[in-house]
Design goal:
By secondary structure, this protein is an alpha+beta fold. Helix content is 24%, strand content 34%. It is built from 11 helices and 48 strands. The strands form 12 sheets. Strands 5-20-19-18-7 form a 5-stranded mixed beta sheet, with no helix packed on it. Strand 44 (669-673) and strand 45 form a beta hairpin. Helix 8 (191-220) crosses helix 9. The longest helix is centred in the first third of the chain and has 34 residues, at 95-128. The two termini are 39 Å apart. Residues 36-42, 170-182 and 754-760 have low confidence and may be disordered. Residues 291-313 are annotated as: Disordered. This is TIR domain-containing protein. Residues 1-145 form the TIR domain.
Length: 760
């Protein structure tokens, strides 16, 4: 965001800051502030630095809390570095007067310095994007930049490149005008060529019109969308893939039963082994939750008392709504925490027992709200009538709803939850000594060994200090831990013994990687290059010099013979460890993201696959995956449009390399086939930002190639089965047919004739 007020404040002053922000929004003041509770870490610093650099006014909400806050001091340092106009207001002063002063100062700063800020931001994005032409500016905007004094070298280069592009565009426009004029005057365009061009254009137009009609049908009636998808599995075209992605993304009921009379309300605060409903005539009906083939309920002789709420609830969070309003409020410890805007008016809402989610019945479906982020993550559809009441199951994995005479249910979590620690922040999921177990690292310093299938905790050891990132050696016996103070330690996972490793002052360590034999540790330094540590002596033995400063990620290929490096400027390099050579440049990822992780996988023909992710991942042109063939890397771009976030901190390939997954900071996991990139499968219902992912081969011949494990900042470890063969138009068409048959058995769908579509 350009031309905004950066609000620097202490979270302990939020009760005063929130009304101030509301008043600023009412006045039309653009602002930026951290609402996500990002830790004082490298990703936080990068995000905040960009926001400060892009602002017109740096606002200090001054208090004793602000003056003793390390994050606030960092923010103020960035403001000094970039010469920002600074305004201080005292926490506790009159809000109206403070808002007036901020509004006036911001508008004056935008007038005086707005053009310079815009040039700074545009030049920075152009440089990060590999200095490509699509981010250059028009002649009109460039003339405003020409008048600015004291511009930086990158800004001078940006203005010059914009000027050259304007000249080229003018020349091309003139040339095209001349070509058209000559063709018109000569009249010598071949009729056969014209007819062939028109034919192909008409075919493509028909395809895109039909795709648009199909997407509109999915939005209007999800069951009609499944009909269309089930009939489109005869080829692997991108047009069909688009339809399958949208149709499969709709969350429909997977259980339902009916009552003789319209339902009034549920009898219990949560559902455990039975669903009990009061009908409009006062009768009470019940059905066992595990009796999923039963489509009716049995009447109870007496109206029962409400069952005890067996759920482990958080008492400090609650939600409020006003009937007919499209906004709900989330309160924490009695104070306003979040205001969430829905797509339509809310009827009723229920908070999940673990306080991670809320479901809100609206005119367009049931909104699934991520409480921590304050966003709608999904809309549950397919109810046969307007929803009048909602109830959660005790484990927060499913909801039930009343819709006329129907009682319907949706599963609202993706994957299988193996570990649930709602008061913790999981930093990493790591391989163990055997494939039946794995390690989970929590930010509080705990490293837990758990059973891979059940999630049972076998052993817990503790690192010294809070964990930022961590890596495990191939034998699963040593963990390299980088704490939140950027100190490195090696932890013996059998005993919990920790030993510090000295790190040079210019190295801000990121997530390291061990050599195949575990004797060497490669540590990326965000301010420098790569540090090499001998794990036996616990000493650094050298460095790998990288042509550009700042390495954000390192990874080894499956053989361990190639080390890949990702820089904070989006560069990707490779080197053979121990060769003594300089890293070879491979590619610069589009939009020049700050690469946070690199996933490697097996490729056809033995060449590795590469997937660098970081800031900007998912945007068009900003995300590329590579496959090496005969020593040459072929890079292909793709786009993920559904996640709310464009920050990815984790990625993984399945054990065969035929599919890959990206974990986003909003909690979404997106699965792709490696070769085609489409159709994707989006999993939006994992609470908390994904911090780490681990891919393990399958222990049994169950039709999958293995499992994907995702660890989130909300203290969840989730298992997702890999199925590369499911990521095709043919497979998704079969799945759409299966979902239709299920909906028909539930009484929610009646078959109808399908429509045809031009073959791409």
């Amino acid at each position: 965001m350009q031309h905004h007020v950066f609000i620097s404040y202490s979270r302990r002053d939020q009760a005063w800051v929130d009304p101030l922000v509301a008043e600023l929004a009412r006045r039309g003041v653009k602002y930026w502030l951290d609402r996500e509770g990002i830790p004082f870490s490298v990703p936080w610093r990068e995000e905040v630095e960009d926001a400060v650099q892009s602002c017109d006014l740096f606002l200090v909400c001054d208090s004793d809390h602000w003056r003793t806050s390390d994050p606030c001091a960092t923010e103020a340092g960035f403001a000094v570095r970039y010469g920002k106009v600074r305004l201080e207001v005292s926490v506790g002063q009159d809000l109206t007067r403070a808002a007036q002063e901020i509004d006036r100062t911001w508008r004056q700063a935008a007038h005086d310095h707005g053009t310079a800020t815009e040039l700074l931001v545009r030049a920075r994005e152009w440089d990060r994007d590999g200095r490509r032409g699509k981010t250059l500016v028009s002649r009109r905007i460039r003339r405003q930049f020409d008048a600015l004094p004291n511009v930086a070298p990158v800004e001078v280069a940006f203005i010059s490149a914009s000027r050259r592009r304007s000249r080229r565009k003018a020349a091309v426009s003139m040339a095209l005008t001349l070509v058209v004029l000559v063709a018109y005057l000569s009249g010598r365009v071949a009729p056969e060529t014209e007819r062939e061009v028109n034919k192909r254009l008409a075919e493509q137009a028909a395809i895109y019109v039909s795709v648009g009609a199909a997407l509109a049908a999915i939005e209007d009636d999800p069951y009609k969308g499944l009909e269309l998808a089930s009939d489109r599995g005869d080829n692997e075209s991108a047009a069909y893939a688009t339809i399958h992605e949208e149709a499969s993304a709709v969350n429909l009921p997977d259980d339902a039963f009916t009552l003789p009379e319209p339902a009034r309300q549920f009898t219990d605060p949560t559902v455990s082994s039975q669903v009990r409903v009061i009908a409009q005539d006062g009768d009470v009906w019940v059905r066992n939750t595990n009796d999923r083939t039963q489509r009716s309920a049995r009447q109870m002789a007496d109206r029962p008392a409400a069952a005890p709420d067996g759920a482990a609830r958080r008492s400090d969070v609650e939600i409020r709504l006003q009937a007919g309003s499209s906004r709900i409020q989330v309160l924490r410890e009695g104070g306003l925490w979040r205001t969430i805007v829905l797509g339509s008016a809310a009827r009723t809402a229920r908070l999940s027992p673990d306080a991670r989610w809320a479901v809100v019945a609206t005119d367009t479906g049931i909104a699934l709200v991520d409480i921590a982020r304050g966003t709608v993550r999904d809309v549950l559809r397919g109810a046969p009538a307007p929803v009048t009441d909602l109830v959660w199951t005790q484990r927060s994995e499913r909801i039930w709803a009343l819709a006329g005479r129907s009682v319907v249910s949706w599963r609202v979590t993706d994957g299988t939850v193996l570990l649930d620690q709602p008061d913790e922040w999981f930093a990493e999921v790591l391989p163990a000594r055997d494939t039946a177990h794995l390690w989970v690292a929590s930010r509080n310093g705990a490293l837990r060994l758990i059973e891979r299938d059940s999630g049972t905790i076998v052993r817990t050891v503790r690192a010294k200090g809070p964990i930022h990132v961590v890596a495990a050696d191939p034998s699963g016996s040593i963990a390299a831990v980088v704490d939140t103070a950027s100190k490195l330690q090696l932890v013996e996972l059998d005993t919990g013994t920790a030993e510090a490793v000295n790190v040079p002052g210019d190295c801000l360590p990121g997530r390291p990687v061990f050599s195949p034999d575990g004797h060497a540790l490669y540590v990326p330094c965000r301010g420098a290059d790569v540090l090499v540590v001998d794990t036996r002596s616990r000493r650094s033995t050298g460095r790998i010099d990288v042509p550009e400063p700042g390495v954000g990620a390192v990874a080894l290929d499956r053989s361990g013979n190639r080390l890949f490096l990702g820089t904070v400027g989006g560069g990707v390099y490779s080197i053979t460890p121990g060769s003594g050579k300089s890293p070879a440049w491979l590619y610069r990822v589009g939009c020049a993201p700050d690469i946070a992780a690199i996933a490697t996988g097996a490729g056809a023909g033995g060449g590795p696959r590469l997937l660098p992710v970081g800031e900007g991942t998912g945007l068009s042109g900003c995300t590329q995956v590579a496959h090496a063939q005969d020593g040459t890397y072929e890079w292909n771009a793709f786009m993920d449009s559904r996640p709310d976030s464009v920050l990815a901190l984790a990625a993984a390939f399945d054990p065969t390399g035929k599919a890959f997954a990206i974990g986003y900071s909003d909690g979404s996991v997106v699965l792709h086939p490696s070769d085609n990139g489409m159709p994707r499968r989006v999993l939006p219902r994992i609470a908390g930002g994904v911090r780490s992912m681990l891919s393990l081969p399958s222990a049994e011949a169950d039709g999958t190639t293995g499992d994907l494990y995702a660890a989130t900042r909300s203290g969840l470890l989730v298992r997702i089965p890999w199925c590369p063969s499911c990521l095709s138009n043919e497979a998704m068409a079969r799945e759409a047919g299966q979902r239709l048959r299920q909906a028909e058995s539930l009484g929610l769908y009646k078959p109808s004739a399908t429509t045809s579509m031009p073959t791409p």
